[in-house]
Design goal:
Length: about 325
């Protein structure tokens, strides 16, 4: 599909009554949800990457109190964290996208990933299997997430991740996966401030950000730096409620956390030769001219930002 067609269609759906339902049906028939098993496998891959980074940072899943920003249509990350032994996972979504049918499909499909979850999460395989069997039975019986997970998973939507109901120091890990690239800059700052408040001393944020042009996934003629051709005003023609892209570069997400007092312990941002070549052949708009090519070309970053254990000296 041509990217302009998709952008225009999504923008129109954003203004129509029932546009959310129509957009979901289009995703099921033509979008990422056509191959549910493949998409879920990709999410599990992302979760195992996060799990490795968290464990390298000294954060085990056993007993973990987590806060997820952006639940989505089905709760892959909360389920995987629960199966790995988390004590509590609170997951917020600005809009109530969670669907019972996809949640059931997620649980049933997760069975083949139990060994992966146990290994990546440092959990006992038998304990993972026991938790899974109980979860599956309850979800298929129609229980909500909190009941099905014995009180571990708390789903809140519509909910504002910049103003949570969580107490100060109540969370060990704040995390998101492919969410921050869809959030305005001022909201990201507010999320970081709230994360600093709810994190326990020494707690960490992990964010995986896909900051390339998402239209490249539907239009094979594009690469992920394509959207740098346009000014903010021009980009508004295709930016929309269903695929809002802030076009912030990888460095912004890390630097903003550092500026708010977090200590950066992981930053995977790398200028890949392929992206540098693509950038060299792209007529970049003047508003991006002040960003060095080695930063402008980066289209993904995983990072860990830790809340200091003690107050920084004035």
């Amino acid at each position: 599909m041509h990217w302009r067609i998709k952008g225009t269609l999504q923008k129109a759906l954003g203004y129509l009554p029932g546009g959310d339902a129509l957009h979901f049906q289009l995703q099921r028939r033509f979008g990422g949800l056509r191959d549910f098993s493949g998409e879920l496998a990709s999410k599990i891959d992302d979760w195992t990457i996060m799990a490795g980074h968290l464990r390298n940072a000294g954060r085990e899943f056993a007993g973990m109190r987590g806060f997820e920003i952006g639940t989505g249509w089905y709760p892959t990350f909360p389920f995987a964290c629960y199966l790995a032994g988390a004590a509590r996972i609170t997951t917020y979504d600005l809009n109530p996208h969670l669907r019972a049918d996809l949640t059931r499909a997620c649980v049933e499909t997760l069975e083949r990933f139990l060994p992966v979850i146990a290994e990546a999460g440092g959990a006992n395989p038998e304990a993972v299997r026991q938790r899974y069997d109980a979860l599956r039975e309850r979800i298929l019986a129609g229980d909500d997430l909190e009941t099905a997970s014995s009180g571990v998973i708390h789903y809140r939507a519509p909910a504002d991740a910049t103003k949570t109901t969580l107490g100060e120091g109540e969370v060990d890990v704040v995390f998101s996966n492919s969410v921050l690239e869809h959030v305005p800059a001022e909201v990201i700052e507010a999320m970081y401030r709230e994360s600093m408040r709810i994190l326990a001393p020494g707690g960490i944020m992990f964010h995986s950000v896909n900051c390339g042009d998402h239209y490249a996934y539907v239009d094979r003629k594009l690469h992920q730096l394509h959207y740098l051709r346009y000014s903010d005003r021009q980009w508004q023609r295709w930016n929309n409620a269903f695929l809002y892209q802030n076009r912030l570069r990888a460095r912004y997400f890390v630097d903003e956390a550092r500026a708010l007092g977090f200590r950066i312990e992981l930053n995977t941002a790398t200028a890949r030769p392929e992206r540098l070549r693509q950038l060299a052949s792209t007529p970049v708009h003047a508003q991006f001219a002040g960003i060095p090519p080695e930063e402008l070309c980066i289209t993904s970053v995983d990072f860990i930002a830790r809340k200091p254990r003690t107050a920084e000296p004035a």
